[in-house]
Write a structure and sequence with these properties.
Elements: E1 4-9, E2 15-16, E3 32-36, H1 38-44, H2 47-50, E4 82-84, H3 86-92, E5 96-101, H4 111-124, E6 129-132, H5 137-149, E7 152-158, H6 165-173, E8 177-181, H7 185-194, E9 199-200, H8 206-212, H9 214-222, E10 230-234, H10 239-253, E11 263-269, H11 274-281, H12 307-316, E12 320-324, H13 329-340, H14 346-360, E13 369-374, H15 384-388, H16 393-410, H17 413-422, E14 427-428, H18 429-440, H19 446-458, E15 462-469, E16 475-481, H20 483-491
Helix pairs in contact: 4-5, 4-8, 5-6, 9-10, 10-12, 11-12, 13-14, 17-18, 18-19
C-alpha cells in the first residue's frame, strides 16, 4: 500500500479522486498533483532506509504513487551520474559546478523517469493500451516502456512537424504503432478518438510528473545531502522545474533536508520562451507563443500547461527564468562534449549557454554550487553532426560520403527516386507520389511519401521552397533539393 492520499489542482486547490482519468482540473484547467500522507512517509523513509536500495526511481517509492510493488516496471531509469565539472568549471570560473547527466537513462532522456511511473500506474489501473501524440522523447519513452510492460502502444505524429530522426527510429524500433496525420492540429482529434480505448500519456499527467521529480532527490543525495545554491533546468512545458520544487519541499517537510533551499533557474530558447516572457513581465498569465523553436525542439512548447506552476516555483525559490539564442546552442553542445564528454541535444545545452550569461553578469558567484540538468542525449538529434563538423573539410567529406551511401542504399530506393524527381525541379507531395508510380512503377501510400520527405529534410538533403493554396484553400507545400542534395546527386 502506498502513501498517496489523492490528487489536487495546483491552481484552484480542488481535490480530485485518485481514480480520475483526467490530467487537468475540470474546473479551471490547472494541472493535477499527487498528495501524500507525509507524516506516514516520514516514518517510513529516511537516509538510513535508502542505503541498501537500488539506484533507480523506485528507490524513493514512498514519495511515488504506485501502491503495489509488482506493478513497478523499470528499465533501469534513474541513478544517473552527477559529474563534477573540472574543465568547464575552469572555463567559467566556478569552483563547484555539477552536471546531472540524464542522457544515460534507458532511452536517453529524463522522460524515462516519468514514463516508468506513469505506465506502472497504468498497469495498476488495469490499462492494456497506451498512446501519445509525439515523436519526441515522450514518444520514444512510451514505446520502450510499453514494450517492457507488455502494453500496446500508439504514437501519433504529424507530417508537417519537424522530426528528430534519431527519436523516430527509436519509436519504430520499440514496436509502437505509428500513425501519421496531416498536420499538428489533427493530433488532438486523433488522440481523442483513440483515447476511448487507450490510456493517453502526456508530460502533464500527474503520475508522469511524480516520476521526474526524482531527479532532484538524487541530486541532493549525491551531494551528500548538502543543498546546492542553484539548479538550472531546461523548460518546455515547465513540468520538470515544477516537480523539482515539489520534491525539494517534500524532502524538507519529512525532515530529510534543512537549510536554505536552492534557487531555480528555468531556461528556454528565445525563439519559444512563453514562460520567460511572463516572468520578465511580472505576469501570472502564460500567453501562447506564436511559433516553435527550430533547433531546441523538445522545449519548443507554445502553450506550456505547467507554465503557471513553474513560474510560482521560480518565484518561491527566488530564482530566475532566462532565454538563450538558438545561435549559441551548437557552441554549447560542442563545449559540453569537448570539455566534459557529455553529448547533449540542443534543448539540453540551453543551461550551458545560460550559465555563461549568468556568471558573466555576476548573478551566479564563483563560490556558488551550481547543478545543471542535461535532459537528453545528442544522438537523438543526429543531424547536429553536420553542424559540429562545419568548416572541417576532411570530416565534412567523410560525413557526406557516409550519408550518401546511407540514403542511396541502406534506406532503400524510394528516397533515391524522390531525390531524382526533385533534381528536375521543385514539386509537392502528391505530384511526387504520382511520378513515383508513373515513372518508377513504385506504388506507395501518400503518407509514406511525406514521411520520406521529412526524413530527407531532416538530413539536410531537401528543403521546403514555397507554399501555395489550392482553390479549396488547402496548403500545397513544395520541396526542392538542397545544396547537399544536389551534391549527393553528383556523387551517387
Amino acid at each position: 500500500m502506498g502513501f498517496m492520499t489523492g490528487l489536487v489542482c495546483a491552481d484552484c486547490g480542488r481535490h480530485v479522486s485518485i481514480t480520475a482519468s483526467r490530467s487537468t482540473c475540470s474546473h479551471c484547467g490547472g494541472i493535477l498533483q499527487v498528495e501524500y500522507d507525509l507524516s506516514q512517509v516520514e516514518l517510513a523513509l529516511s537516509r538510513t532506509t535508502l542505503r541498501d536500495r537500488p539506484s533507480n526511481v523506485w528507490r524513493y517509492r514512498e514519495l511515488l504513487p504506485v501502491g503495489v510493488s509488482e506493478n513497478m516496471i523499470s528499465l533501469g531509469e534513474g541513478g544517473t551520474y552527477l559529474h563534477r565539472c573540472n574543465r568547464l568549471s575552469s572555463e567559467t570560473g566556478l569552483k563547484r559546478l555539477f552536471l546531472k547527466d540524464e542522457t544515460i537513462n534507458p532511452t536517453g532522456s529524463f522522460i524515462d523517469r516519468g514514463m516508468a511511473v506513469e505506465l506502472s500506474m497504468a498497469l495498476e489501473q488495469g490499462r492494456n493500451t497506451v498512446c501519445c501524440g509525439s515523436v519526441g522523447n515522450i514518444g520514444v519513452s512510451l514505446a520502450a516502456y510499453a514494450a517492457r510492460a507488455g502494453l500496446s502502444s500508439h504514437v501519433i505524429m504529424a507530417r508537417d512537424d519537424t522530426v528528430d530522426m534519431g527519436k523516430f527510429y527509436q519509436v519504430v524500433a520499440y514496436g509502437a504503432d505509428v500513425k501519421i496525420v496531416r498536420h499538428h492540429d489533427a493530433i488532438s482529434s486523433e488522440l481523442e478518438r483513440v483515447s476511448r480505448v487507450c490510456h493517453q500519456v502526456n508530460a502533464n499527467n500527474p503520475y508522469f510528473l511524480e516520476g521526474i521529480k526524482t531527479t532532484v532527490f538524487e541530486i541532493i543525495e549525491q551531494l551528500g545531502w548538502r543543498l546546492p545554491d542553484w539548479i538550472m533546468v531546461p523548460m518546455g512545458s515547465g513540468g520538470h522545474l515544477t516537480q523539482i520544487w515539489k520534491g525539494i519541499n517534500e524532502l524538507r517537510e519529512i525532515g530529510m533536508i534543512k537549510g536554505n533551499l536552492p534557487r531555480l533557474i528555468g531556461v528556454q530558447s528565445s525563439s519559444c520562451a512563453p514562460i520567460v516572457r511572463a516572468f520578465d513581465q511580472g505576469s501570472d498569465v502564460i500567453e501562447p507563443w506564436p511559433r516553435v523553436s527550430g533547433i531546441a525542439q523538445d522545449i519548443g512548447i507554445r502553450q506550456p500547461r505547467c507554465g503557471p506552476t513553474a513560474l510560482r516555483a521560480i518565484r518561491a525559490s527566488n530564482g530566475l527564468a532566462i532565454s538563450v539564442d538558438d545561435s549559441g546552442l551548437l557552441g554549447a553542445v560542442r563545449r559540453l562534449a569537448h570539455l566534459e564528454g557529455v553529448f547533449a541535444e540542443p534543448a539540453s545545452a540551453t543551461v550551458i549557454a545560460a550559465l555563461d550569461l549568468l556568471v558573466n553578469d555576476g548573478t551566479i558567484d564563483a563560490s556558488d554550487t551550481v547543478v545543471c540538468i542535461v535532459t537528453g542525449m545528442g544522438l537523438k538529434f543526429p543531424e547536429i553532426a553536420r553542424d559540429l563538423v562545419r568548416g572541417q573539410l576532411g570530416l565534412e567529406r567523410i560525413l557526406s560520403s557516409m550519408e550518401g551511401r546511407k540514403f542511396t542504399g541502406a534506406l532503400g530506393h524510394t528516397k533515391q527516386h524522390i531525390i531524382e524527381i526533385l533534381a528536375g525541379g521543385d514539386a509537392y507531395g502528391y505530384e511526387i507520389w504520382k511520378k513515383l508510380g508513373e515513372e518508377y512503377d513504385l506504388h506507395v501510400k501518400i503518407p509514406s511519401v511525406y514521411q520520406h520527405l521529412m526524413e530527407l529534410k531532416a538530413a539536410g538533403l531537401v528543403i521546403q521552397t514555397r507554399i501555395e493554396h489550392t482553390y479549396q484553400g488547402r496548403p500545397r507545400v513544395y520541396y526542392a533539393l538542397s545544396e547537399r542534395g544536389r551534391s549527393l546527386m553528383k556523387t551517387s
